[in-house]
Description:
Layout: E1 2-11, E2 16-21, E3 32-36, E4 42-49, E5 52-56, H1 60-65, E6 73-80, E7 89-95, H2 99-111, E8 115-122, E9 137-141, E10 148-149, H3 152-158, E11 168-172, H4 175-188, E12 194-197, H5 220-223, E13 226-228
Parallel strand pairs: 7-8, 7-11, 8-9, 9-10, 11-12
Antiparallel strand pairs: 1-2, 1-6, 2-5, 3-4, 3-6, 4-5, 12-13
FE2/S2 (inorganic) cluster is lined by residues 202-205, 207-212, 219, 221.
Amino acid sequence: xxxxxxxxxxxxxxxxxxxxxxxxxxxxxxxxxxxxxxxxxxxxxxxxxxxxxxxxxxxxxxxxxxxxxxxxxxxxxxxxxxxxxxxxxxxxxxxxxxxxxxxxxxxxxxxxxxxxxxxxxxxxxxxxxxxxxxxxxxxxxxxxxxxxxxxxxxxxxxxxxxxxxxxxxxxxxxxxxxxxxxxxxxxxxxxxxxxxxxxxxxxxxxxxxxxxxxxxxxxxxxxxxxxxxxxxxx
Length: 234
Ligand SMILES: Cc1cc2nc3c(=O)[nH]c(=O)nc-3n(C[C@H](O)[C@H](O)[C@H](O)COP(=O)(O)OP(=O)(O)OC[C@H]3O[C@@H](n4cnc5c(N)ncnc54)[C@H](O)[C@@H]3O)c2cc1C
Ligand code: FES
């Protein structure tokens, strides 16, 4: 484990914050850190840039993190996990806090001159964080407060987005959204070019404890957390 100091906290909403460290971690988009929040637990969080994580408060540890003010110390292990595969023609599909690892990927691909379309959905307009920093983005909200009223799967179908024109399709978000995308990609015959970032309970983060094993025997921490569509069943 090594320690970093929190340089800056950006509060996107009351329950979502980006925690920026005082140094960059050599890493690729899709990789995650085991973050030890002293006095709380050690939890897995995706890198949202080489020197940040972006967290949504869902329990004690994430709740403590979003209340950080800057100057705190964090213990880190990692980066761990397989990264996304870069491509020149990319479709990024994000739901809610699933935008965190995909923002890192978006910036990484744009810097390398890729053609990127982002389809980003959230419950409400305020949860569409970074919407103004994403190039070529289509937005959706469950309550219709911004963009298309509905979820990202419905948006892709309504706009007749031609999935076959993308070299890779990258997905991260809540399980029901990933299941809907998985079914759609299977029906459209593009599952082999899709990559899904999956979450599961984790303890060791390095393939030893078995707490993150999927039904098919793959471990999210070392065989993922990014999986190809044809490696998994959702
Ligand atoms: C590879 C990976 C990357 C992740 N990246 C991010 C990220 O970038 N930003 C972010 O906000 N969160 C991310 N998470 C989820 C984050 O780790 C959990 O929200 C966190 O561990 C919850 O801790 P807690 O103590 O605050 O809540 P807890 O009290 O432990 O849990 C609160 C609620 O969240 C559920 N939960 C807890 N952990 C998980 C989990 N791993 N998967 C699914 N449900 C869970 C619990 O069932 C409970 O309902 C990631 C998880 C993984 C495995
Ligand atoms: S978290 Fe221990 S094996 Fe994956």
